[in-house]
UniProtKB/TrEMBL annotation:
Pfam family, one: NAD_synthase
Extent of the signal sequence: none
Domain annotation NAD/GMP synthase: ranges: 16-117
GO molecular function: sulfurtransferase activity
Naturally occurring in which organism (per UniProt): Marvinbryantia formatexigens DSM 14469
GO biological process: purine nucleotide metabolic process
InterPro entries: LarE, NAD/GMP_synthase, Ni-pincer_cofactor_biosynth, Rossmann-like_a/b/a_fold
Annotated active site: 185
Top-level taxon of the source organism: Bacteria
Name of the featured protein: TIGR00268 family protein
UniProt-listed Gene3D superfamilies: HUPs
Length: 271
């Protein structure tokens, strides 16, 4: 191994050791779980450091998350043998969420994390952790502010784990979803101040499921009134435009036009 390779390996070991130390200091920990790679890796690390009896995963089910993702998250929890709870949440009852306010994530995260903290406390857990990582500090994340305000800890962030660090370590640990594309709240598919309804969120979730079922692991369907603007990685664009059947299915959900975004998939386009 090269000198640079040795340095990288040593640096990763230092981060992993620091993460384990932070987790062990807590003794017992509840993890706000979403089924994404960040919270999944954090849960795996907590189970390693503390043991199954000292760890609780809490998953929120609501319109902000496709039902298929909830089912997949629960399957992952069962496969890990983790103790978990699923909370039903009505995000449309949060005014700022329903109106898709620019600080939607702040108010939504405050509500969800408060519910998770209550659930954790009812089960004897005082410390609650989320999957925030070092890369999140450089992007617009009002939800992270809300989590911090109510006392949610972020062990991955404290340990200096970047998204790539998480994926690298998860792969080494044999975690099956190490390369799972990042998912985001379905509200992010709409421009700010677009009034959100259950029908709108479910429709965009169904549109993306059509693409997922066709083999597009990374995709977004952004909504502009009656236009569905599809984002996929540039290397997948050629295949997408040949799938007339899937495009027609998306139109049949109630869209007048289905378009392809030539810039490709990217996070936070409405920010």
């Amino acid at each position: 191994m090269s000198i640079n390779g040795n340095r990288k390996e040593k640096h990763m070991t230092e981060k992993t050791d620091k993460l384990q130390s932070i987790l062990q200091e807590k003794g017992r920990l509840a993890v706000a779980y979403s089924g994404g790679i960040d919270s999944h890796f954090l849960l795996a690390a907590a189970l390693r450091a503390l043991g199954k009896e000292q760890v609780l995963a809490v998953l929120c089910r609501g319109l902000m998350m496709p039902e298929a993702e909830v089912c997949e998250a629960e399957r992952l929890l069962k496969d890990m043998g983790a103790d978990y709870r699923i909370l039903e949440v009505d995000v449309l009852a949060i005014p700022e969420f329903a109106e898709n306010d620019k600080r939607r994530c702040y108010f939504c995260k405050k509500h969800l994390m408060s519910r998770i903290k209550e659930c954790a406390a009812e089960n004897g857990f005082t410390a609650v952790a989320d999957g925030k990582n070092a890369d999140d500090a450089g992007v617009y994340r009002p939800g992270a502010q809300a989590a911090e305000e109510i006392g949610i800890i972020s062990p991955l962030f404290e340990s200096g784990f970047t998204k790539q660090d998480i994926r690298t370590c998860a792969r080494e640990w044999g975690i099956s979803i190490w390369n799972k594309p990042s998912q985001a709240c379905l509200a992010s598919r709409f421009s700010y101040h677009t009034h959100l309804t259950a029908e709108k969120l479910q429709r965009v979730g169904e549109a993306e499921k059509i693409l997922h079922d066709a083999g597009f692991a990374a995709c977004r369907v952004r909504v502009h009134d009656m236009i569905a603007r599809i984002e996929v990685p540039r290397e997948d664009m050629g295949r997408l435009v040949t799938l007339t059947g899937q495009i027609q299915k998306i139109r049949e959900l109630g869209f007048s036009f289905v378009t392809l975004d030539l810039e490709g998939i990217r996070s936070g386009v409405f920010d």
